[in-house]
Amino acid sequence: MAIVGGGMVAKSHLLSIKDLADEITLTGVLTSSEKSGRAFARQAADICGYQVEAYESLDALCADGKVDWVIVLTPPNARLEIVQSLAAAGKSILMEKPVERDLAAATRIVEICEAAGVRLGIVFQHRVREASRALAALIKGGALGQLAIAEVIVPWWREQAYYDEPGRGTYERDGGGVLISQAIHSIDLMLSLTGRVFEVQAMAHTTMLHGMESEDYVTAGLKFESGAVGSLIASTASFPGEAESITLHFTKCVTHLQSGELKVKWRDGREELFGASATTGGGADPMAFTHDWHKDVIADFNRNSDEGGTPLVSGREALDVHALIDALITSSNSTCAAKVPYPEA
Known about the structure:
By secondary structure, this protein is of the alpha/beta class. It is 36% helix and 22% strand. The chain has ten helices and 14 strands. This is Gfo/Idh/MocA family oxidoreductase. Residues 133-252 form the GFO/IDH/MocA-like oxidoreductase domain.
């Protein structure tokens, strides 16, 4: 396999590839410039323990018959041409979230891959945590009863220096702020557990704590297709930053996912604990999390590519989280602001 793009999360992918040396080989890498490509290839070689090529061009990568599939780590706005070329060359694609900057652009990416008959997987590593898998199994088994309320809180923090990086938090490059770049992981995980949301009422805002183009704080009410209701708070302005959480209230229990752990409190008094505590990158260091979750996603994609199966999260399935994010922003932009009518003193 090969990698296109060498951004912040690239090291997690390289460490994962090293751990999966018995299953996959990194043939080469491609970045936006020859200089950065050579540097990334050296880093990859140091971590993986063997020579890694720095491709001169996307055409050179596509022509490499040794490459079965490609990890794409570029910013969202740089993906269309890359996906078109890889799909035309018959290379399956595993892509870091988001698929693109909005639902329409993401749908185009998915349709290109479907038309070419290549697999498209999206990296939503929160789904592979032990606690997440345990909760998904409990829900599937029907033991928890009916879902009544879902509460998602992403109280993260990012320093201003994070948004001072060119393009970060802009609509042109990223497609938005906290929703599409950070909270998208928790929102995707929620949807995988709850099913689809059909109606939202939201407020998205840029606080005085950041100088940036897009939103760093969102609060919303949710109505689910199942009849459940819920709430979402997503922030990168919540100093010093805490782990995100998903709390689901069922008719027979309450489940709480946070920091890699699942706590189940049954209404008959029983309590259960699944998983193990882990950092999730909610504070000033966005990379303060284990690469093991990326490794599981990469291993799943590779094995499914060999066996002809569906990725853990396909491009088509990932459109659900894009649709919800678009609806949240649409709701915020279309709702008239109202002053609170406080009485005179």
